[in-house]
Design a protein that fits this description.
Blueprint: H1 4-30, E1 35-41, H2 48-64, E2 68-76, H3 79-87, E3 95-98, H4 101-106, E4 108-110, E5 121-126, E6 143-147, H5 151-158, E7 162-166, H6 169-177, E8 184-187, H7 191-195, H8 198-201, E9 205-206, E10 210-213, E11 218-222, H9 227-243, H10 245-261, E12 267-270
Parallel strand pairs: 1-2, 6-7, 10-12
Antiparallel strand pairs: 3-11, 4-11, 5-8, 5-9, 5-10
Helix pairs in contact: 1-9, 2-9, 2-10
Length: 293
């Protein structure tokens, strides 16, 4: 077993290598023109999740030492429109979204999971009368609702769940209120914000006993021709992971939320994700959230 001292040496060595070798690549840019990073305005303003991503972006750029300016788009850009603009390097030059094979083929992914995989941790929104009816062995016999074009729909189906499809986000909640589905799996980084909108969630509650988990990653994406910007973001994020500042920002944003959900007291149902690209860095445990015993 490696000693604590040798682990510290390894960590320090990693930071040193990143700081000297990789930052040397960018030294010629540090005193050049300012890097302008254009990112899409999000549909939900004042969201802690959108602000967290901007904070991560800023952290990564600060680590590299380059001069930069972050510019939000004038208009709200949903993912489809944002990726279309990114493909032409117009209006935005960085987008963040859940990865899949198609996106990694069309764009350059920065393979650091921005939410440490939390997008794949799901608790269940249910109507109050369903609280006593859900059992682990029969959970798949109940009907879950998901958007018809969401990757989560295919993931749940691949794991044997019955899924009702909704045409859009709002209709998914309408289906729940009409009791045409039994549960609405929601990411643990989304659910509290949704419950804070009573006009959206109404009487829905978080089911207290279960949590679904499948590997899923939200990445920064840049245009394939923006290789230098891709390296810049990769370098900054790797440095932030290595020196602990990435985890510090993550914990400040999400630790209280995770503790409120009491994940270590829930029955964990681990699911497969057939849509996950082969190059997802699952082996690097430092990049993923794990439940403390």
């Amino acid at each position: 077993m490696r000693s604590f001292y040798s682990c510290c040496q390894s960590s320090c060595r990693r930071i040193y290598v990143i700081s000297t070798v990789l930052l040397g690549f960018f030294s010629s840019f540090s005193f050049a023109a300012v890097w302008t990073i254009n990112y899409p305005k999000q549909p939900v303003q004042n969201s802690i999740h959108a602000q967290y991503i901007v904070d991560v972006l800023e952290l990564a750029l600060q680590k590299t030492g380059v001069r930069y300016e972050l510019v939000e788009s004038n208009d709200v850009l949903l993912q489809g429109k944002a990726f279309k603009l990114l493909s032409n390097n117009r209006t935005v030059n960085v987008v963040w979204a859940m990865t899949d094979d198609k996106r990694e083929e069309d764009f350059l992914p920065i393979r650091i999971p921005l939410y440490k995989g939390l997008i794949g941790w799901r608790v269940l929104l249910v109507n109050p009368e369903k609280l006593s009816q859900l059992e682990s062995s029969k959970l798949r016999d109940n009907y879950a609702v998901q958007g018809m074009d969401w990757p989560d729909l295919k993931i749940l189906q691949a794991n044997g769940f019955n899924v009702v499809s909704a045409t859009n986000y709002d209709e998914a909640f309408t289906i729940m209120h009409r009791k045409q589905a039994d549960m609405f799996p929601r990411s643990i980084i989304e659910v509290f914000g949704e419950l804070a909108q009573p006009e959206l969630t109404k009487a829905l509650l978080i089911e207290p006993n279960f949590v679904l988990q499948y590997p899923a990653a939200t990445y920064f994406f840049v245009n394939q021709r923006d290789v230098i910007l891709g390296r810049l973001l990769t370098t900054g994020l790797e440095m932030a992971v290595a020196d602990g500042s990435f985890d510090k920002l993550f914990n400040v944003t999400y630790l209280d939320m995770l503790q409120q959900l009491g994940l270590n007291k829930r029955t964990l149902l681990t699911l497969k994700n057939p849509l996950l690209p082969i190059n997802t860095p699952l082996a690097d445990k430092a990049l993923w959230y794990q439940i403390n015993p």
